[in-house]
């Protein structure tokens, strides 16, 4: 089963389920934060569904931590 | 949250995935002295725990993210908090990948890895929605079973011990032992508990609970490493992906008590769940502090989706993750577990000193 497709298509349901709780908080900042995180999650899962290669976190860490790792045993 | 619950959560965080993964790394580096490497890792973790206790004393009433803002200023503090958010995210995703790999390689080989991870995440999402206190109570329910399963494992393995396997002791000197201990200590992530100290009902016994959970967790870990060497021998311990699981598979008492490796799986899943949830709650707390939010519980589902993507893109295969853990993770973890806390403590001490000096310099 294509789980990335399933999860991408379920994301709008997440928006619908969480919106009443956000409205109750009466905070523009919280709403903006949720929408931003939701967009990132949906876009990333959509990219995975489309077969795009997402960056590997460990490779980014490898580049930044190379000087420190060179000094360790 | 009470101090007993804090003890259990610290224990769960210490044991977590380490019970399954670290014996192999310790055996590969320190050989027959892998158990001494485990003890060295415990001493290193004790030192780090003392540093975190010092941070809590220096910044009373603050969680980890609040400490960074107090120590480095508002915006630099938020930047550092964001680093920790990413660290916890990558760690939790890697753990999830590890879970999927273990279950599909050892227990359910025909099951797609994705469904194992999604089912586990579904349980994590349910727990995240209910709050840390529910997790703490769950830990109290799980703890006697973790102890019981561990005792069954140890007692069933006793007849198979070969004391010759542990010799020679310190043949390579202290170097490999300390190296192995250092690498193993980078997998306990005790700094996560600093996020939850302000949520304790009383701060009276928290240090004892923290150090007790750490010690008890390490007792379990060192026991598993020792038994791996004493029963499997060094070659099988070093070359197995999950030597603790291989250990459990050897149990056979009177041709009657056999195939009880399911006990280790149950033990591991419980401690793994506790560790993953601590990281999840830390991320939510981090998000709340960094962005100044009223609540972060609505972000549980999107964070879970991102965790799944991190798991898929981090735990690509066992060879890749083995290489990454060996060559990349140590330095990255050291920054978050040692370097930044040291800087935070130094900054806090400096600010306190400057405050005392300025108070003394005020004209009477």
Description of the structure:
The complex is a heterodimer of chains A (73) and B (364). Chain A has 73 residues and is mostly helical. Chain A has three helices and no strands. By secondary structure, chain B is mainly α. Chain B has helices spanning 3-15, 18-30, 34-58, 64-72, 74-107, 113-130, 132-157, 174-185, 206-232, 234-239, 243-249, 261-291, 300-314, 318-361, and strands at residues 252-253, 257-258. Chain B has a two-stranded antiparallel sheet with strand order 1-2. The model of chain B has no long low-confidence stretch (mean pLDDT 88). The chains are: A mainly alpha (73), B mainly alpha (364). The A-B interface holds A 1, 3, 7, 11, 14, 17-18, 21-22, 25, 27, 29-30, 33-34, 37-38, 40-42, 44-45, 48, 54-58, 61-62, 65, 68-69, 71-73 and B 90, 93, 112, 114-115, 118, 175, 179, 182, 287, 291-295, 297-299, 301-303, 305-306, 308-310, 312-314, 316, 324, 327-328, 330-332, 334-335.
Write the H/E string of chain A, N to C. Answer: HHH
Distance between the termini of chain A: 43 Å
Mean pLDDT of chain A: 87
Overall 3D geometry of chain B?
globular
Assembly type: heterodimer
Question: Major sheet of chain B: order of its strands?
Answer: 1-2
What is the 3D form of chain A? Answer: flat
Poorly predicted sequence stretches spanning 5 or more consecutive residues of chain B:
none
Corresponding CATH superfamily of chain B: Amino acid/polyamine transporter I
Decide which structural class fits the backbone of chain B. Answer: mainly alpha
Q: What helical percentage do the residues of chain B reach?
A: over 70%
Q: Name the biggest interface.
A: A-B, 36 and 38 residues
Tally of distinct domains of chain A:
1
- Report the portion of residues of chain A in β strands: under 5%
What structural class results from the helix and strand content of chain A? Answer: mainly alpha
Q: Helical region count of chain A?
A: 3
